[in-house]
Amino acid sequence: QVQLVESGGGLVQAGGSLRLSCATSGSIFSINAMGWYRQAPGKQRELVAGIMRAGSTKYADSVKGRYTISRDNAKNTMYLQMSGLKPEDTAVYYCNAAHPFTWDPLWSWGQGTQVTVSS
Q1: CA 20 vs CA 16, 24, 92: distances in Å
Q2: Which of 54, 50, 51, 80 is nearest to 67 (CA)?
Q3: pLDDT score, position 104
Q4: Contact indicator for 50, 103 with CB cutoff of 8 Å
Q5: Given this model, what pLDDT does residue 28 score?
Q6: Radius of gyration of the chain (CA)
Q7: Which residue, among 36, 22, 14, 19, has the nearest Cα to 89 in the 3D structure?
Q8: CB 59 within 8 A of CB 103
Q9: What per-residue confidence (pLDDT) applies to 41?
Q10: Distance (Å, rounded) from C-alpha 38 to C-alpha 54?
Q11: Which segments of the chain are extended strands (E)?
């Protein structure tokens, strides 16, 4: 079972930026799709950004133009650059491998990393 370790979260003022990292214990080279998800208090976990092995990306409408997902297969690491942060972006952020059509997560969740945006 591949382990996922998210990092890079923190407390930031509205309009600020953060870069999240997702390190995996196994190779992601052969993983077709990977995604960043978030779960805000009282809400369901949602996909915010996804990236295919070839590099194509998708974003939730709420983060388009503000978030950028990337992956480094050689380092078995995925990133999420977040800018223009808003208080509604406050959530625990998780990464995972994903089904390439449904974007349902494939592995067990890591501990996530908390992002808190103050107004």
Answers
A1: 13, 13, 11
A2: 80
A3: 96
A4: yes
A5: 86
A6: 13
A7: 14
A8: no
A9: 93
A10: 23
A11: 4-7, 10-13, 18-24, 33-39, 46-52, 57-59, 67-72, 77-82, 91-98, 113-118
